[in-house]
Amino acid sequence: MSRKTRTVLVVAVVAALFGWRALQQRKPDAPKGPPKPIAAQPAPERKLGSIAFKPCTLSPPMGAQSLEAQCGTLSVAENPALPNGRRIALNIAWIPAGESGNHDPDPVFLIAGGPGQSATESFPAMIPAFRDVSKNRDIVMVDQRGTGKSNPLQCKDDDADGKTTAAVETDVDADESPEAARAMAVKCRDQLARTADLRFYTTTDAVRDLDAVRAAIGARQVNLMGVSYGTRVAQQYAMRYPQHTRTIVLDSVAPNAIHLGNDFARNLESALDLQFGQCAKTPGCTQALGDPRARLNALMVKLRAESPLVKYRDAATGEMKEERLRPGHVAGLARMYAYAPLAASILPLLLNEADQGRYENLMSLSKMLGGSMSDMMAYGMQLSVVCTEDAAGLKADASMASSLLGNSLVDLMQAQCAVWPHGDMPKDFHAPLATKVPALLLSGELDPVTPPSYAAQVAKTLPNGREFVLRGQGHNVIAVGCMPKLWAQFLETADAKALDAKCLDSLAYTPPFTTFNGWEP
Taking Cα atoms as reference points, which of 380, 399, 387 lies closest to residue 263? Predict the structure, then answer.
């Protein structure tokens, strides 16, 4: 039994005992024995258009605060050409508009990233930052088919006590060979083939689902907010259904023109150079920790020659374990921490520790990150998307061979896509979005995967678009600083160019840790 389960049971037992004692003390003549059970009342049902919703609690992973919502489903055909064939129950969460008195008819659709993340798991932790947005508008989260509770394409490794199989996109232990990746994909494919036709879990299928939800709830238009891969979904929706798109917000923009994977190594190198460069600008950092970039390069050379045996404490169990520290552990940790400069601020200190032969913290954090992420991504869905939409354009880059990631991710993705079923996509899928729909494009200056240059590229064909680059920030910036208020203003006016963004000038860089006591005052 998990610690969380035990805690819930303890709370339930205490509550039950307290309620029983209160009942006994309420009246001197209270009858002996336990009270007669009261039949549970069914939760009240609410309708949004033709979809029935009931109260639910969204409990995101990683211990984030839960969110009270309304949950429902919409049945759609897995294969649109076979309406009487297998169907998918799309999982939908609805946050009704606040009590402002003004209920605008165009809801906000939140679209998660990945590909492979669940909207109902990804966004609840951010909802408090969207209070202004939700005052007048409903917020709708649809688990994209293949994710969350919408027929998730999540593979389990039967030989590892049900552990989730990790795909190459976010694997923090990426020392895997293309042959092993291919074998994993075959196993995952055959396992999922029992419950899904893997050709129909693409972005194009998801866009069609979103419009089905829009029609079912009775909205003429929607406001789209996509994060990372979700910006691809939002752009594709605006291309296919411009008449139903009121505004689009693209946070950490992935242009239609790119093939996911090709630029990962180069973008990470640029971001790490910028992030590590903060050490030279922080008093005492270089003196205490040296040059973090040089430390990282030297460590990777050392690990490629010999992998040291490291004793470390498992963060999940508290047990002491022993394992060899490999290049993939460090590369994966550096890559994923670079998404959030707040997390990346500890990397210079960890690299200095490793330079002194102390690897325990690097190993422990790498293993903890891998464990925490293993269930957050639907890797089968991710492969269905990438193999249909990106595989044909994946190319190794000789100039990146000696970089932190090298061409390993491209090699692994090509190996997996060689055996994964491919769906169909429109011929203009990779064409830039060209529309007059009002658009707000957001980038973090230090983003390691979707740099500001991506947003600038997309903005060229959006005459009513405007881009903001948030200083010192990484990936996913919609909830940073005053952005929630700017987003709410944009939704009210549908005019990005009229926004006064001076409030973003106060954003600051995160200084690196110089000791384990935290940042210097």
Answer: 399
Label each residue of 87-127 as H, E or C.
EEEEEEEEECCCCCCCCCCCCEEEECCCCCCCHHHHCHHHH
Which residues neighbour 51 within 8 Å (Cβ) at sequence distance 6 or greater? 72, 73, 74, 92, 213, 216, 217
If you ran DSSP here, which 8-state letter would residue 450 be given? Answer: S
What span, in angstroms and rounded, lies between the C-alpha atoms of 177 and 263?
20
Q: Which two tokens stand for residue 303?
A: 């690990």
User: Is 303 buried (19+), middle (13-18) or exposed (0-12) by CB count in 10 A?
Assistant: buried
DSSP 421-433: ------TTTTSPP
pLDDT tens readout for residues 19-29: 222 222 333 34
Its pTM stands at 0.88
Query: At 160, is the pLDDT very low, low, confident or very high (cuts 50, 70, 90)?
Result: very low
Tokens encoding 322: 């022993």
In whole angstroms, what is the distance from residue 14 CA to residue 10 CA?
6
Which secondary structure element, helix H or strand E, spans residue 486, and what is its range?
Answer: helix 483-493
Beta-bridged to residue 250, according to DSSP, are 226, 441
Task: Supply 268's token pair.
Answer: 């990470």
Q: How confident is the model at residue 113 (pLDDT cuts 50, 70, 90)?
A: very high
Measured from the Cβ of residue 235, the count of other Cβ atoms closer than 10 Å reads 27
Tell me the β-bridge partners of 223. 108, 247
**What region does 148 belong to: left with phi over 0, alpha with psi -120 to 50, or beta?**
left
Burial call 161-193: b when 16+ CB within 10 Å, e when fewer: eeebbbbbbbbbbbbbebeebbebbebbbebbe
Of 97-101, 249-253, 421-425, 479-483, give the lowest mean pLDDT range.
Answer: 97-101
Amino acid at position 184, single letter: M
